[in-house]
Structures are given as C-alpha cells and as structure tokens.
Design a protein that fits this description.
By secondary structure, this protein is mostly beta strands. Helices cover about 10% and strands about 60% of the residues. It holds the Pfam family Cu_amine_oxidN1.
C-alpha cells in the first residue's frame, strides 16, 4: 500500500513538474529533500509539502527507464515500462568484464511487453569520465516483442572503470527515451 502511495505521489509530481511550488497554498511549508536512486543523487531532488513527498517524474524518466506521457486533454498520466534486456558479446561469448584496450563487441537487445509503436533504437556507450559515443542507431518498426542485435562495434576501453551501455527507443514524433542499461567493468 505504501509503495502505491509513493508511486502515485511521484507520478503526480511529474504533472506539476517545475511549477509545483507555485501551486502550493501560501500556508503550506515546503522542505527540500535529497533523492538518491541506486546510490546516485538526482540533481533536482524533491520536496516535502504538508507531510507528502513530491518528486518530478520528468527528472526520473531515465531512471524509471519507461515511456512517460501526460495527456493534457484528459489529465491522465501514462507510464509504459516495457521489458528491455541487453547482453553483450565478444564474438559468440557473452561478457561483463573486459581488459583495457581496443576490442570489438556487439549488443543483443530483447524487448517484450511493448504496448506502443517505436520507430528507432539507439545504443550508446558512456565511459567512466562521462563521454558518450553512439554504437548504433537504426530505424525500425516495432511493437510488442522483438530482438535487435547491433553491428560489431570497435571500441577502446582506455582506462579502468565502469562503462555503461544504454538502450534508447523513440516513439514516433518524440525524443529518444532510455529503456535499459548494462554496466561493463574494464580491468587491467
């Protein structure tokens, strides 16, 4: 029950986005709060107002790894979280750790429970310093269940640390949305 209440408050926070405080009555007290997700602090945090917690879902969209849409006309918030899983391969062998240096790999993406049509997929890699490179971007027509395997990608794991492979998909006439991540540790 508590999880449902928190989810409802988070979703409600998205509808108000950055204008949340201007809609709060003058007598209400708002306290800033830090929000961490999987150990990482989110930039904007949230607010506690009259004992209720508010967090903008806009800032959590990538963290939720879901399509989020607010229909202004019907005043409904839609959150769609398809199952998107990734595996990384060097040749035919799956991996999660790699030695530093240049190597080739591909990503296999499995998608199911997709309730909306997507028109493109993008895979990126982010190094430990925050630099991002595109592995592959491809137009597609997908709804429901599908598999996608990227082309072989040559990459230089220059330093030790954790690299993140990101899978984004795009709904027609919208921006790309992060739907899955997988971490790779580069070791010496």
């Amino acid at each position: 029950m508590k999880c449902r209440r928190i989810a409802a408050l988070v979703l409600a926070g998205m509808m108000f986005g950055g204008t949340l405080l201007s809609a709060v009555p003058a007598h209400a007290e708002a306290d800033n709060m830090r929000v961490t997700l999987n150990g990482e602090a989110l930039a904007d945090g949230g607010y506690i107002i009259d004992g209720k917690t508010y967090v903008s879902v806009r800032q959590l969209q990538d963290a939720l790894q879901a399509f989020v849409h607010f229909d202004e006309k019907t005043k409904k918030l839609y959150v769609e979280k398809p199952n998107v899983h990734m595996l990384l391969f060097q040749g035919k062998n799956p991996f999660g750790k790699v030695e530093t240096g240049r190597t080739s790999f591909s990503a296999l993406v499995q998608v199911d429970s997709l309730k909306t049509e997507v028109d493109a997929i993008r895979l990126t890699i982010t190094d430990p310093k925050g630099n991002t490179s595109t592995i592959q971007e491809k137009e597609l027509k997908g709804k429901d269940n599908f598999w996608f395997r990227s082309e072989e990608y040559k990459y230089d794991f220059k330093s030790k640390g954790v690299y993140t492979i990101n899978c984004y998909m795009r709904k027609k006439n919208e921006d790309f949305t992060l739907l899955s991540q997988i971490k790779v540790e580069a070791i010496k």
